[in-house]
Amino acid sequence: MADRLHTINPATGEPINSYDLMSDTEVNRTIEAAHAAFGTWGATPAADRANAIRSVGAVLRERKDALARLMSQEMGKLLSQSEQEIDLCAAICDWTAETGPNALADEERDLMNGGKGVIGYAPIGVIYGIQPWNFPAYQVFRYAIANLMSGNTVLLKHAESVTGSALFLQEVFDASDLPKDAFKVLRITHEQSDNVIAHDLVRGVTLTGSERAGKHVGAEAGKHLKKSVLELGSNDAYLVLEDADIETAVKQSVMGRVYNNGETCVAAKRFIVVDAVYDQFKEAFVAAMNDLKAGDPMEGEADIGPMAREDLRDTLHHQVRASVDKGATILCGGEIPDGQGFYYPATVLGDVAPGMPAYDDELFGPVASLIRATDAKDAMRIANDSRFGLGGGIFSRDEDAAVKLAMEHFDTGMVFVNGFGLAQPDMPFGGVKHSGHGREHGGFGMKEFVNVKAVNILAA
Asked: Among 145, 248, 309, 420, which residue has the least CB neighbours within 10 Å?
């Protein structure tokens, strides 16, 4: 077993830092400390918990510049997008603090037998989060703030490549008004992680990660009869219909494919365009993607930065080549550039069909799959022809018809109409099928790991 965690700058390929792993004894002591903190935090009135969560957002804003630079250094996102990510995290704190006390308030009901009922939302204890590298702050805040608002305490195993960001977040939470040990970072291996899931004091598990990781973590949680929330990958389809505003569709599709260097679970990945506007969209979309320039994420001139790790770039390129071998055509990009760093150009694949990685799988990087459909019905069929179901989009000037199509036919947890979206604190986030289960944001995350307690006051 390795004894240290390592971080590498993907823009240069050079090491940044290394960190000691925790011993099993340290891990157990940390879990016990989080459980002890729960004894006090879970009994704290919701309004007071909300005030403490506001303070987390305030500390985060104070330390925004330093954290943004560290995040960009560790995973390669544009500095401006790291700053946007931190703003979103602070907004999550504000929204949760504002809405949490009412969302978690007791509910009274008149019972059918003439008695009274009270429904409570009681915290359950220590919640363990396993999070990826692509949004080093947001992925953490998405589950941690909701669970802290619920009265639970939180453990975090972050991706090795953003260990520095994880420890920076520990400092943010420690400097807030939260009680000591309410939020704790674990520097552990995958084997140790399985032991955390099994620990008697850990009451729930939440993962954002790959389909493969979801199957493993979900199985481990189920084996120990613990609830899990899984937010996994996807190959989100964006439909361009006959009445779409093509200029808007192209602009939003480019952003949707390359935001965060294309390394986003809910990114636009498959672009399904109806015959009537296919050639028009294709010409403009390929030209716009081809114009994007990769460069140093710390500078202000680049459109996209490097991929987060060399192995991730190699995997993406293999998927591109495998798709080409099966008949896809490269319309732009598609070649690993010379020089240092883990860069990959904005790429568009045409003639994409079932049986290709570009159609069936998730391409986690700046590669777009362009697919022709005969009409709206065919486009919707192709969109749902996926084992994933996280997000998707529809471009159409008929907003009512697009909403109807989204509500009645799109087999995903989220749909965006006439634009690309990532996440909003006040709207639920999550998917179906192999994209996982459970919801975060929109008040739903606050009730994923609570004891929905029914108290029946029976009539005499």
From this structure: 248
- The pTM of the full predicted model, rounded to 2 decimals, is 0.97
Residues of the chain with CATH 3.40.605.10: 4-233+435-457
Polymer length in residues for the chain: 460
Alpha-carbon distance of 391 to 412, in angstroms, equals 5
β-pairing verdict for 227-231 and 202-208: parallel
Classify 376 as helix, strand or coil: helix
- Determine phi and psi for 264, rounding to 5 degrees: -140, 130
Q: Which of 85, 93, 160, 265 is catalytic?
A: 265
Domain with CATH 3.40.309.10 in the chain: 237-424
Distance CA 397, CA 242 (A): 9
Tokens of 63: 């330390």
How far apart CA 358 and CA 331 sit, in angstroms, is 13
Model confidence at 1: pLDDT above 50: no
Rounded to whole angstroms, how far apart are CA atoms 172 and 40? 20
The architecture that CATH gives domain 237-424 is 3-Layer(aba) Sandwich (3.40)
pLDDT, averaged across the chain:
97
Structure tokens at 459: 């009539």
Helix, strand or coil, per DSSP, at residue 98: helix
User: What is the pLDDT at residue 422?
Assistant: 87
With beta carbons less than 8 A apart as the criterion, state whether 299 and 256 touch. Answer: no
| Each residue's pLDDT tens digit, 356-388 | 999 999 999 999 999 999 999 999 999 999 999
**CATH class for the region spanning 4-233+435-457:** alpha beta
89: annotated active-site residue? no
The pLDDT assigned to 2 comes to: 62
For 167-307, where are the E strands, in sequence order?
183-185, 202-208, 227-231, 237-240, 270-274
DSSP 403-460: HHHHHHH--SS--EESS-----TTS-B--SGGGEE--BSTTTGGGTTEEEEEEEE---
